[in-house]
Here is the input.
Amino acid sequence: MSDVIAQATGLVKTYPPRDKRSAPFTAVNGIDFTLHRGEAFGFLGPNGAGKSSTMRMLACVSPPTAGTLRVLGLDPAADGRRIRARIGVVPQDDALDTELSVRENLLIYGRYFGLSTDVIDERATGLLDFAQLSDKAAERVDALSGGMRRRLTIARSLINEPEILLLDEPTTGLDPQARHVLWDRLFRLKQQGVTLVLTTHYMDEAEQLCDRLVVMDGGKIVAMGSPAELIAAHATREVLELRFGIGEQAAALDKLRQAVTGDRIEELPDRLLWYTAEGDAALAAAHTLGLTPVTALVRRSSLEDVFLALTGRTLVD
Here is the structure.
């Protein structure tokens, strides 16, 4: 069995103009990527970068405008139904039937795949246990917390035992505890051989879950690699975060950029980021320049620093 489970070459998605005065909009502009069986692969980027359009093409619900795409060795244009039978989709909105019970949501969804009642019932029992919802099986969905609903949505997407699971912003709106529970469920799926493909705005989530990822901006891929590779390539070993009093940041930025050579200084609305090999030495240099930050923090570089460096935006536009 081939290790490659999906591959795109020169993939383009263009949408028609909204009106006669508008031009066609290219959401995905000639991207290449390869997904390997059993890995977790992430698409990162600001809103409008092309992530969701790419996911819709992978899900075989939106045809490519140009380029080639193969999913499970098949052509989505000709074999969309066969591909959809072998993948699972977790949309950003849960879209559960809130008037039905937890178990009934699984049973009804299983019928869409032509599964027998006995098979659906057996799988539903196992999925409820996997999602830690066995004790909620008879409750209506509208009585569940947000984290429980998200776990139910993932359980529902697994009723057909998919080879690929597509997850669009899987933990948006969840509290930290619920996010960690969900991360554990997804990690277990990967251990079972399911290929995970996800979009996320949470950089810590991408670092925790993804073996490889791409950063998209303006419909193009601007970087690709493992989280560690991207951090090594696009950030320094450490970052010094400096926060200043109201009205003091602009002057501090000017002074640093005049005095510092070789290192990059990033301005955010609430703080300055000094990318450097030695954060403590940078802080000492800031004090030598007469700067008195309200707070100063030296930390290791993260995937968030890579994201900011490559896209020039905050995490959510």
Remarks:
- The domain at 4-226 is CATH 3.40.50.300 (Rossmann fold).
